[in-house]
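Researcher: Please predict.
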Amino acid sequence: MCVHEQRVVGRDNTVRYKNKTLQLPQSPLRHHYVKARVTIHEYPDGTLSLFHGPGKIASYGQTGNPITPEVLKNAA
């Protein structure tokens, strides 16, 4: 279970959510997501994920810092 909210990506390739600015990472699929509609998933533990359609773009910690695969690997 999580909260879903839609946002439109700004001209600086970021999304604002609850006083946080989430920078979208570079993608091999697109040069940028400017003006794209994305869905933010906020999970009960406070972490966030950004989706464009069915594809997950990025994950963020409670403070809005990106969670990279290396961080997940070290946490396990």
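Model: The helical segments are 69-75.
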